[in-house]
Design a protein that fits this description.
This protein is an alpha/beta fold and 347 residues long. The protein has nine helices and 13 strands. The protein has two domains: 145 residues, Rossmann fold; 189 residues, Dihydrodipicolinate Reductase, domain 2, CATH 3.30.360.10.
């Protein structure tokens, strides 16, 4: 039986991860949920209605990683930088959801539907990185097009939900929206910088090189590495929007040769894990609310509005929506676990 720990188990992603680890396709495991001192002792298994063997929540300082086979770190980059390498050095395999290790050459950056071969052997670092949430849905949507006609450039605008700011972000969005609707004073700064309620914030993370935000820098770097396309050019504007769940993206992709919309749609429809929407469907395109309420289809990448650019036959527009807590975080981590289990090198 695998001994697994989930660091950050009471957060937005951690709760989703625990629920997914309760699924029938997951290897038998004993799970240790880990969170801050204020959550210690919480019976999160009962709270979430889980069947898997799971202990009450423990503090990070109480964990002996020599006794853990696999640890999911979903508590943010600072916690990962402080503890993930220590866990890996103790012999524990770490699947990290933060940005702490994504640029390291000795740490695979993995979307199992795109580059599972990077997990054929256990990394010497004992670290595996989950990509950025918006990166995951992007590469899963554009990879089928790359297979048909090559890929050279992407211009992307993201519309990212409040759940990207965790439980605190969701709470602020709900509270600030209620305050404004009740005619109260304007909310002050918070999790997203300026208040998000009834507004759009074209900044996610600090600004850096070329006046790009940190989120935009991640989206610019990560697809090329995951897809094995070092010359791929990605330009991004990342926007936080006042919705609760599911990120949306408008993507313009430049291919190496012309492709008509029907060929592109058929290529997307043929890929497991993608739901394609066509213009004549009852639901002609996905929306964040539609995806949030789609039950098990939350596990899919939803793609619609596929159309050829009027000014170039080798360029397409796509509209992409996915659940950022599932597809963009917890589910990708679980898919990594499934992949390494198939390769058979995890004890």
């Amino acid at each position: 039986m695998l001994r697994m720990a989930v660091i950050g188990s009471t957060g937005a992603v951690g709760r989703e991860l625990l629920s997914l680890l309760d699924g029938p396709e997951i290897p038998d495991a004993h799970i240790v949920p880990v969170a801050s001192a204020r959550s210690a002792g919480t019976d999160i298994g009962a709270e979430l209605g889980l069947r898997t063997e799971i202990e009450p929540v423990r503090e990070l300082g109480d964990i002996d990683f020599t006794q853990v086979d696999l640890a999911f770190f979903v508590a943010g980059a600072e916690v990962s930088r402080q503890m993930a390498e220590k866990a890996a050095a103790a012999g524990c395999l770490v699947i990290d959801n933060s940005s702490a290790f994504r640029t390291r050459d000795d740490v695979p950056l993995v979307v199992p539907q795109i580059n599972p071969e990077t997990l054929r052997s256990r990394p010497a670092s004992n670290l595996i990185a989950n990509p950025n949430c918006s990166t995951i849905q992007l590469v899963r949507a554009i990879n089928p097009l790359r297979a048909v006609a090559g890929l050279s450039r992407v211009i992307l605008s993201t519309y990212q939900a409040g759940s990207g700011g965790g439980i605190r972000g969701l709470g602020e969005l709900a509270g600030d929206s209620r305050q404004i609707l009740d005619g109260g004073p304007n909310p002050g700064p918070g999790r997203f910088g300026p208040p998000l309620a009834f507004d759009l914030l074209p900044q996610i993370g600090d600004f850096g090189d070329h006046a790009s935000s940190y989120e935009e820098q991640k989206l610019r770097r990560e697809p090329a590495r995951i897809m094995g396309l070092p010359d791929l050019k990605v330009s991004v504007t990342a926007v936080r929007v006042p919705i609760f769940h599911c990120h949306a993206e408008a993507a313009w992709v430049e291919l190496d040769r012309p492709v008509d919309a029907t060929t592109a749609e058929n290529a997307l429809a043929a890929v497991p894990g993608i739901r394609l929407y066509r213009a004549g469907d009852d639901e002609p395109y996905p929306t964040p609310r539609l995806v949030e309420q789609s039950g098990s289809d939350r596990a899919l990448v939803h793609v619609g509005r596929v159309r050829v650019d009027e000014h170039g036959a080798n360029a397409l527009w796509l509209w992409i929506v996915a659940d950022n807590l599932w597809v963009g975080a917890a589910l990708n981590a679980v898919d990594i676990l499934r992949t390494i289990s198939r390769y058979g090198w995890l004890n």
